[in-house]
Structures are given as structure tokens and as C-alpha cells.
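Justification of computing resources. Each target in the renewal requires a structure prediction run like the one illustrated here; the chain below, 202 residues long, is used simply to show the kind of job we budget for.
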Amino acid sequence: MKTGIERFRQQKADNEKKAAAAAEKLNTLNGTRAELETRIDSAIKDGDQVTAEKLIRSRMDIDVQIEIAQKTLANLDKPLDRAAVAAAWEDDLSDYQRQIDKGEKELNQLIRQAVEKALAIADAINASWDARTAALLLVNDQEPHTYNSGNNDFPGVSFTGKTLDDVSELLSREEMNKIRPDALGTIGMAIRNRTNVFFRRK
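Resulting C-alpha cells:
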């Protein structure tokens, strides 16, 4: 679908082509007129009134064509009407705005879905750490709530924390709270570094 601005762009391009053709025609007509003027002068000098009259009539016809070509060229060289182009832009702007509004609505839905998915992942991560802690408590681990050199035989889950962190920043705190009051805390807990590099066996 052509926009209003595209139609005006096409009109301007067409006008430029027509103007180039009109300028070429005008140049040719001016050359013909100059040639007639020379022939008229020659016929008058030779006393050939009949030929001079015919040539003068031809020159008059050329003058009419020259005036038409000049006015055509002047019309084609005029800039496009600003108000008309602005009105066309208003129509195009409405179309663009509709596309943007629709896209933003869909994007916001996708962002919400992404946050909800991130929360589901964070819930699973947190549940896995609780379950790991419970498993380590069964064997009286010295520090079951961390991952350390003493309990690395109980591996933790694998996930991309940066993705969860990035997703949590897509919405404001208020918007996150609307999804779930504990949303930021849940994701924060999931991506928390639980490694204790200073662990020493007692």
C-alpha cells in the first residue's frame, strides 16, 4: 500500500522528469527560433517578402510554443504544496501510530509472558535449592544452604542467571508487583550466588 508521502514522492519524481523534458523542448524551440530569425533577416535583406512573411508566421507559432514550454516548466519547478504534503503526512502518521500502538501492546504482552516465565524458572530454581538443602540436612552437612567444596557431590541446577536478571528489568518495580508482590525477591533469590569459596571443613 502506497502512503500519501510516497505518492507525493512519486509526483515529485514525475515532475522532475517532465521538467527535464520541457527544458529540453524549450532549448530546441529557442534554437529553432534563432534559426528562423536568421532566415527572416536573410529573406528581408534579399527583398523576399513572401518568404519573410511565412517565416515570421512560423516564428510567431514558435513563440507560442516557447511561452507554453516556459510556463509548463515554471509550473513543474514549483515546490509541492506544503499544506497538502502535511495533510498526507497526518494520514501516514495515523497509520504508523496504529502500527506502533498495536506492536507495543503485543510487546507488553510478550514482556509480561517473559516475566511470568522467568518467575516460573526462578520458582523452580529456588525449590531446587530448598530440596538440595533438605537432602544435605539428611546427611548432617556442615553448611547445607551453600554450595561449597564440602558438598559439591550434591550439584546444583544449571541456568542462565543473566537472562532472569535482564527479564526482571523489563518492567518497573510497580509493574512487577502487579504480576506478583514477591516477583523481584523471587528472581533475586534465584540468581543469588550461593557459593561459599571460604568453606573449610571443621
